[in-house]
Amino acid sequence: MPSCSLLILAGGRGQRMGGRDKGLIDWQGEPLVAHVHRVVRPLSDDLVISCNRNQDAYRAYADQLVGDAEVDFPGPLAGVIAGLKVARHEWVVLLACDAPLVDRTLIQDLLQVAVAGDTAAMVRQGGYWQPMFSVLPRRVLPVLEQAWAEGERSLQKALLRDKVQALECTEGDRRLSNFNSPTLLQG
User: Fold this and answer.
1) Is the pLDDT assigned to residue 19 strictly greater than 70?
2) Which CATH superfamily is domain 4-186 in?
C-alpha cells in the first residue's frame, strides 16, 4: 500500500443531529470519530481532521487540524480543499467522521483502485457515488479550487470534473453506513 494521508471530515453543522458535532456524539461508549480513528490510525503517519469547532476535542485524534477558509459551514468541499492543502502524502484517503463501520479492507481496496488508475477513486453503491469514501491524489486540488471559484459547492460534482475510478459496493454494505441522524445511532 502506498503512503497516504488520511482526511476525516468533521466540519459540518450537524443539522440532522440538532446542531451537535457528529464526530463527538457517543456511539457504543466512544465518540464516532474514535471508531474511525481506530481503524485508520495504523495506515498513516498523517491523519488530518477538518473541523470547524471543538478543535481541542479533535486534537487527540489527529496529527493536523484544519478548518474551512470560509465561515458558516460551507460544506464538505471546503473541508476537502483545506485538507488537501496540508496533506503530506500524494494520496489522500477521505472519510466522514460519522462512518464508524468503515474497515481497512475498504480503504485498501480504494487505494488499490486509485493507484492502479493513477486517478481518484470513489465508492459507487447501487449506481450512486459516495464521495465520503474516496481516495484522492493531491494533484486534484486545483480542479477542486477551480470548481469552488466557479460556485460549485457539491463535493461529488467537483470530484467528477476529473477522472474518477469506481469501487463498486453492494447496496447493503454496512461499512458505508453514515450515522448522521439520531435514529441511525440506535442501530
Assistant:
1) no
2) Spore Coat Polysaccharide Biosynthesis Protein SpsA; Chain A (3.90.550.10)
